[in-house]
Amino acid sequence: MNIEDGAPTTDYTTAGVIGAVLFLIALSAWPIANRLRESEALVRRQELDLANLAHLSQYIVQHLRESILVVDTQDRVRLINESAAQILGDSSAFPGALLGEASPRLLYLLETWRQNQGNPAEFPFPDPTFVGADGARVIRAHFAPLGEASPAPVIVFLEDTSLLAEKVQQSKLAALGRLSASIAHEIRNPVGAMSHAAQLLAESPSLTDGERRLTEIMRTNGERVSAIINNVLSLSKREEARAESLPLQAWTEEFQEEFCETMQLDPDRLLLLGSADPVEVRVDPSQLHQIVWNLCENAFRHAMQHDNAAPVEIQLGRMIPTARPYLQVMDRGPGVSPEHAERIFEPFFSSGRGTGLGLFLARELAQSNGATLLYEPRQGGGSIFRLVFSDPRRWETR
């Protein structure tokens, strides 16, 4: 063994070989390290892009005009925008909430839709509508699965049917306006002549008390027909209602007395279920009179065919939890068949006697006053027509 400067030669050789190997390893690992660094940077960029996309999607969803929510397989709300939350109720519709607690009716529609996907004949899909949390909007639900899993999360679109119905009825209202304008003059003249004749007849000294009451009824109804003509003409021209603050309890008591006297009904045939708290509304009194008169007249016409002994009831109060004032007319008639329920407010639609304009005009007059007219079947048989007035918080500050 040769020794130079006190160190073995083989040690230098071994060290050189190891150094060369380490250099080659480092040299070959350099591209891998670069790729790792690039991959790490790419992952960070992708995470940032995903986060940005998530925030963008959340922003878009929240600011969509459409009302949407996503429900998972456990029937929990995973995503909901502000518009949908207002429909279902802000206090009960939020991410993580059970759909059944926010809207039992919507959960029923969702479960029926899921079953209907497998066997449409066995699970016929019901009318996919429900009343919103404010009690003033009829909402139609549309469902679509998210992904191909079974079961899969579902995206739910909530459509305010009043907006679509308003567009459809605008064209019908234009036709009705042209019709009403063409015949208003012909109607006004004979009505005016009858009212004038009744007024002259009432001045006769030989009339009995009963005959005077009949002439008063003629005069009153002549004035009412003239008011109806004016309302139809105003409606066709889309004139604004002359709204004013109105104590609903006192107004309804006067209406009940007038209706019973004009229709020659015993007062206990039209019952008034008042409210313990004062209810004030902002509405055009003349148009409100026509709406409620149409509803009561319609109720008696159908209720007498079914159960002549059952009274018609007028109930007023405030919706829970929105506190919106309402007035509803309830009867014990045969009700409305499900296939006709969505058509009863269409112009000229009638399932029996009548022109088919009463309910249509009533809803249009309600909308011109910022109110909503809804129908629902009455438990135990009969019908409920509910007039939900505009939110008092919107006009109290004016």
Outline the secondary-structure elements:
Blueprint lengths: L2 E2 L2 E2 H54 L4 E5 L5 E4 L1 H7 L10 H4 L1 H15 L10 E3 L6 E8 L8 E7 H42 L6 H28 L7 E4 H15 L7 E4 L6 E4 L1 H22 L5 E7 L6 E7 L26 H11 L3 E6 L5 E6 L3 H4 L3
Parallel strand pairs: 9-11
Antiparallel strand pairs: 1-2, 3-4, 3-7, 5-6, 6-7, 8-10, 11-12, 12-14, 13-14
Helix pairs in contact: 5-6, 8-9
The gross shape turns out to be: elongated
Report low-confidence residues grouped into runs of 5 or more.
none
CATH class of the largest domain: Alpha Beta
Largest sheet: 5 strands, antiparallel
Strand content: 15-25%
- Determine the mean pLDDT: 79
Total domain count: 3
> What would the CATH topology of the largest domain be?
Heat Shock Protein 90
E-strand count: 14
Question: How would you characterize this protein structure?
Answer:
With 398 residues, the protein is an alpha+beta fold. It folds into three domains: 3-62; 67-159, 2-Layer Sandwich (Beta-Lactamase), CATH 3.30.450.20; 242-398, Histidine kinase-like ATPase, C-terminal domain (Heat Shock Protein 90, 2-Layer Sandwich). It has ten helices and 14 strands. The protein has helices spanning 9-62, 82-88, 99-102, 104-118, 161-202, 209-236, 248-262, 285-306, 358-368, 392-395; strands at 3-4, 7-8, 67-71, 77-80, 129-131, 138-145, 154-160, 244-247, 270-273, 280-283, 312-318, 325-331, 372-377, 383-388. The strands form four sheets. It has a five-stranded antiparallel β-sheet. Strands 9-11-12-14-13 form a five-stranded mixed β-sheet. A two-stranded antiparallel ribbon has the order 1-2. β3 and β4 (77-80) form a beta hairpin.
